[in-house]
Amino acid sequence: MTLRTDIPDGIKTAMKAKDKLSLSTLRLVNAAIKDRDVAARAEDRPDGIDDAEVLSLLAKMVKQRQESATIYEDNGRPELAERERGEIVVIRKYMPKALSAEELTAAVKAAIDGLDATCLKDMGKVMGTLKSEFSGRMDMGKAGAAVKSILAG
Fold this sequence. Notes:
76% of the residues lie in helices and 0% in strands. It has 7 helices and no strands. The relative contact order is 0.10.
C-alpha cells in the first residue's frame, strides 16, 4: 500500500464513520497532493510526485498545524488550537514513525561518517543525505542542530 491509496481509503472510512475532523483533514491532504501533482506535471514529470515528496508534504502540514496551534493558544483561542492538534493526529497516522533522539543522533553520525564530513562546509551535503533517506521521519531542525554540533565539535 502506498500513500496514494491509503489517503483516499482513509477518506472513505471517515465518510462511513461520519468522522468530520478526519474527513476534512484528509480531503485537505488529498487536495495538497493533487496540487503538487499538477505542479510536477508542469515540470515534465508525468507521474506526479513520489511517496518521499508526499511524506515531505505531510511533515510540512504537521509543522504548519503545530505553529497555528501555538498561535491560537497565545491568542486565547483554545478551541481552534485543539482542532489543529486533532488534524495533526490524523495526518501523523499516514506518516512513518518518527525517529527517537538516539536514532536521530545515530543517523546523523552515520551520514557524517559516510560522507567523510569534517567541517561545517560539509553540512549541506550531510543534510541533503539525511533529507533523502529520512524524509518525513526526521525533524530536520533537530537534525541540523545535531549535525552542526558534531561538525563544530
